[in-house]
Specification:
Elements: E1 2-11, E2 14-20, E3 24-29, H1 36-48, E4 68-76, E5 79-88, E6 91-96, E7 99-100, H2 105-108, E8 113-116, H3 128-142, H4 146-165, H5 171-211, E9 217-222, H6 231-249, E10 260-265, E11 268-269, H7 270-273, H8 276-292, E12 302-306, H9 314-325, E13 329-334, E14 343-348, E15 351-354
Parallel strand pairs: 3-13, 3-14, 8-12, 12-13
Antiparallel strand pairs: 1-2, 1-4, 4-5, 5-6, 6-7, 9-10, 10-11, 14-15
Helix pairs in contact: 4-5, 5-6, 5-8
Bound molecules: adenosine-5'-diphosphate and magnesium ion.
Amino acid sequence: MTVQRLELVNYRSYSHIQLTFDAQLNVFLGKNGAGKTNLAEAIHFLSLARSFRTSDDQDLLQKGQPFAKVKAVIDLQGRKQTLEIVITPQGKKILLNQKPVKKLSELSKVIHVLFFEPRDVMLFDDLPKVRRKFLDTHISKHQEGYLQQLSQYEALLNERNLLLKSAQPNRQHLTVLTKQLIEASYPIVVARHSYIENINKVISKITSVVKGSPIDIKLQYVPYVNPKQDFFKEASLLFASKLEDDIRKKTTQLGTQREDFVAIYNQQTIVSYGSQGENRLAAIALKIAPYFLVEDQALRPIIVLDDVLSELDEPTQKRLLQFLQKLQQVFITTTHMLDSPAAIYDIQNSHIQRRA
Ligand SMILES: Nc1ncnc2c1ncn2[C@@H]1O[C@H](COP(=O)(O)OP(=O)(O)O)[C@@H](O)[C@H]1O
Ligand SMILES: [Mg+2]
């Protein structure tokens, strides 16, 4: 999939722009404050109808304007799709080929964007919930029903925690909820386990190409119970051993809400052993890895890298760019001119000019 045309009206710093894009590498070049991240954000916004920078859509309206519009023509397996999102103070309207979109999952069938922002370079040093979010977001793209499994689990977890907060938790009720919670956790653990295994098939290839020499990085999932064991028995034993503590602490301490994954490099976690450069490289590779997990080439996601290159040394930048050139469509923002064949868009004060 590729974005062929993009139109923004009253979107953040942009009053009105219309751009056409090539497949492959597109570079947005401009000083700080020029409008690069706003543009990158708009491309990502198309895929979720949600910004990665704000949970309030109203922030996206240009100051003082009554509406904002993001419109794109997307090439999907040779068929053109028109996607239009209009934001007003009353809410937002999403039109796909002029027809209203009712479920956001319809969007992800048309456009899928992998987005990398500067703080993502510290992914392995970030909070576990950030890594869980990465996992859950990507699994839900691959596996229909996963989001529903997650929300079922969360509902049970909330119920159990509420019960634990009561003065005298009913033990029988607790036993029933615990059993239900374990059952609800099983498909989540299985899905996370298999997704991490899939990522492991590609991540070392990416890090090696970008590093310029073999670098073996593996993710290690830390499930609360190994899904390969007798899951229900093991989980029940664990929950039983924690029961009194749960009651004392008035919260559930076990389960998928506490899980995490680490990156292993030279038999140690990359956070404790790897250099800053290796940590960055691993984080970038992890973010790009889902691209290769989409089997149908024509459906592979669009990659947007916002201000990532400045975090890397020059030879690594070069190899990363060479690597990205071979992917379907990539957008990069940068403050410095890159030595790479790419379509260059100069941005100044939210005005954009494509270089001839
Ligand atoms: N809703 C908005 N209305 C008008 N201007 C905005 C809005 N949101 C952000 N801006 C402005 O957009 C400018 C460019 O921001 P940004 O895209 O982050 O620049 P950069 O090129 O450094 O990534 C900033 O100066 C910011 O004040
Ligand atoms: Mg920026």
